[in-house]
Design a protein that fits this description.
Elements (H helix, E strand, L loop, with lengths): L7 H14 L13 E3 H4 L5 H14 L4 H26 L10 E4 L5 E5 L10 H21 L8 H20 L6 H12 L5 E3 L7 E3 L34
Antiparallel strand pairs: 1-2, 2-3, 4-5
Helix pairs in contact: 3-4, 4-5, 4-6, 5-7, 6-7
């Protein structure tokens, strides 16, 4: 935590503002979306994960099969960081990701996370990463079983690690208190995968991914602001895949 302690009412207000800024569990309100236990979603032989890969393939018009597979890892990494990084930064209890359920649209899109409401007893950077990586590991293994890279591939793990910077950068731009760059550095260190997120406070967009989420492969699309391809000669305006 790099934010000064505040009253419970102020903290609640800040978290509600995070709900407005980011796709967090509290912003997925539709009771009509089915929820699936995380272990069931990650079953490569089940209907959910394969359909989620296909939904990305269809939405992006991808010819490259790996694009949809890696984008599933991106989607979960992004949602998991949105659901937990603001709490750590602001000094709120971390939501537990054990017994997680996920909301899935009729098209197969991973729409949102539905934690149980339980909270961790400890909110250290290592505790944060331990629980996020425990949730991410079965997804990486299942995506490998569907034909993707090996489970330890940076193509998967660059997504939750890179999303640390994106979440905190957005909070900083919105005027949230605390040292967002310091929080990003302490959480990045806890991952043991520091080289997957480049942080340079001299840049306006100070976080840069060092792996690719694959969204640029969508025909006619551009790049996200924190993309590893930030200095590509063919770069176009961001299409905000992280919405």
């Amino acid at each position: 935590m790099t934010t000064q302690p505040c009253s419970p009412a102020v903290l609640l207000g800040r978290l509600r503002e995070c709900d407005r800024l980011l796709p967090r569990p509290g912003t997925i309100r539709s009771p009509t979306l089915p929820t699936v236990p995380w272990a069931e979603f990650c079953d490569p032989a089940g209907p959910w994960l394969a359909r989620c890969v296909e939904e990305w393939q269809e939405r992006g018009g991808f010819r490259h099969r790996r694009a949809g597979i890696v984008l599933v890892a991106f989607r979960f990494g992004w949602l998991a960081c949105c659901a937990t990084v603001p709490e750590h930064h602001l000094g709120a209890p971390l939501p537990a990701l054990d017994d997680l359920r996920v909301a899935v649209t009729a098209e197969g899109r991973l729409s949102g996370l539905r934690p149980t409401g339980d909270q961790l007893d400890e909110s250290s950077p290592q505790q944060w990463w331990d629980q996020l990586s425990r949730a991410f590991e079965p997804l990486a293994e299942a995506l490998h079983a569907l034909g993707g890279p090996v489970p330890e591939s940076h193509e998967y793990w660059g997504n939750p690690v890179g999303s640390i910077g994106t979440v905190l950068w957005r909070l900083q731009r919105a005027g949230m208190p605390g040292d967002a760059i310091a929080t990003a550095r302490e959480l990045r260190a806890a991952t043991g995968r520091e080289r997957l997120l480049d942080i340079d406070e001299r840049r306006d967009t100070w976080p840069r991914r060092t792996t690719c989420c694959q969204w640029w492969r969508k025909p006619g699309n551009g790049y996200c602001e924190e993309c590893v391809l930030w200095n590509s000669a063919s770069r176009k305006p961001s299409s905000a895949v992280t919405s």
